[in-house]
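Sequence and structure are no longer studied apart. To make this concrete, we show below a single chain and its fold as tokens.
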Amino acid sequence: MKRSLFISVLFLMLTAFTVSTSLLDVVRSINNGDAASVAKYFDNSVEMVLPGKSSTYSKSQAEMILKDFFYSNPVVSFKVLHQGEKGGSEYCIGTLETKNAKFRTTFFMKNKGDKQWLQEIRFEN
């Protein structure tokens, strides 16, 4: 009985660590202005909100749009203000400081199978 409880708790801890690792990878990639690394976590379609642009894009379109955004707004830093999870999804709210402006940044990731996928990302000023 104790052994099965231990295994269950260990499994839950490892699952939680994997989920957090995905979120941290996206945070690091945004901080580095690395669109290709962020795009590794894009779902098949991604809702994007940027100044002057708001739509749902395919994975490849979203990567190009994010790459252009980072090119036009070179990243200085990304500071996480809040992060949490609810119902198999994780979210992160932060401030992206670029050479041109500061953007309130929010992204949402959802579990599908054994991996998390980024489904929505917003850069609002």
Q: What stands out?
A: Residues 4 and 10 are 10 Å apart (CA to CA). The longest helix spans residues 2-31. The domain at 2-124 is CATH 3.10.450.50 (Nuclear Transport Factor 2; Chain: A,). The chain has one domain: 2-124.
